[in-house]
Amino acid sequence: NAGVTQTPKFQVLKTGQSMTLQCAQDMNHEYMSWYRQDPGMGLRLIHYSVGAGITDQGEVPNGYNVSRSTTEDFPLRLLSAAPSQTSVYFCASSGDRGHSPLHFGNGTRLTVT
Amino acid sequence: GNSVTQMEGPVTLSEEAFLTINCTYTATGYPSLFWYVQYPGEGLQLLLKATKADDKGSNKGFEATYRKETTSFHLEKGSVQVSDSAVYFCALQRLTQGGSEKLVFGKGTKLTVNP
């Protein structure tokens, strides 16, 4: 069982470049989400989706876009990278809403210079 | 709004010591409560959960009891091992009126266990 798969594991970008962080899950989960993890800040929600074709903003959505064309995939796009987006990004999914735990990927470490 | 407050780390213990990591929460309604663990270089993993008041979650020797009267969900383990060294996150989760999940994390507590 692969669970939640994130690619790439590491990425270095220059300011202004764009890129897409990939996330795929094979558990048929409806709910998927993206978090960023920064020292002393815990995890902050960027965007989430409750099903294919439905997305919504989280706590820190600026500078990021998402789409959900299939149940399995939930890519995160950085339109014009900034040094403030240097972080570790985690994708997570869950099945039933409300009381089910999240399954996390292993993260993407992004550095923007 | 909803929030989670964890004791600040880092916490350093010797092997076989008793562990407590405090967690208190503020929430409307009846949230579910979770402890997640993050080992170095990995994503978060569910450690244990409790979905209603007085529930006790347990796993791998760790325990936490959902205390509504004190709005707490403290993590405990009677005898820690070196392999328990990790960052621990307390979290609450509840449904919004629109039916979507809202998960709120604490800032994490880093635990180091020395042999």
Structural write-up:
The complex is a heterodimer of chains A (113) and B (115). Chain A has 113 residues and is mainly beta. Chain A is built from no helices and eleven strands. Chain A has strands at residues 4-7, 10-13, 19-25, 31-38, 42-51, 54-57, 64-66, 76-78, 87-94, 103-104, 108-112. In chain A, the strands form two sheets. In chain A, strands 2, 4, 5, 6, 9, 10 and 11 form a seven-stranded mixed beta sheet that branches. Chain A has a four-stranded antiparallel beta sheet with strand order 1-3-8-7, with no helix packed on it. In chain B, the strands form three sheets. In chain B, strands 2, 5, 6, 10, 11 and 12 form a six-stranded mixed beta sheet that branches. Chain B is globular. In chain B, 38% of the residues are buried. The interface between A and B is medium-sized, with 24 and 23 residues.
Structural class based on helices, strands and sheet pairing of chain A? mainly beta
How many H/I helices of chain B?
0
Please estimate the helix content of chain A: under 10%
**Mean pLDDT score of chain A:** 92
Sequence stretches where pLDDT stays below 50 over 5 or more residues of chain A: none
Oligomeric state:
heterodimer
- Poorly predicted regions of chain B: none
CA gyration radius of chain A, whole angstroms: 13 Å
Order of helices and strands of chain B: EEEEEEEEEEEE
What is the terminal separation of chain B in angstroms?
41 Å
Helix and strand composition category of chain B? mainly beta
What does the overall shape of chain A look like? globular
Mean pLDDT of chain B: 91
Main beta-sheet strand count, sense and barrel state of chain B: 6 strands, mixed
Largest interface (CB within 8 Å) is between:
A-B, 24 and 23 residues
As a percent range, the share of strand residues of chain A is over 45%
Dominant shape of chain B: globular
Largest sheet of chain A: 7 strands, mixed
CA-CA gap between termini of chain A: 36 Å
Strand content of chain B: over 45%
Alpha-carbon Rg of chain B, integer: 14 Å
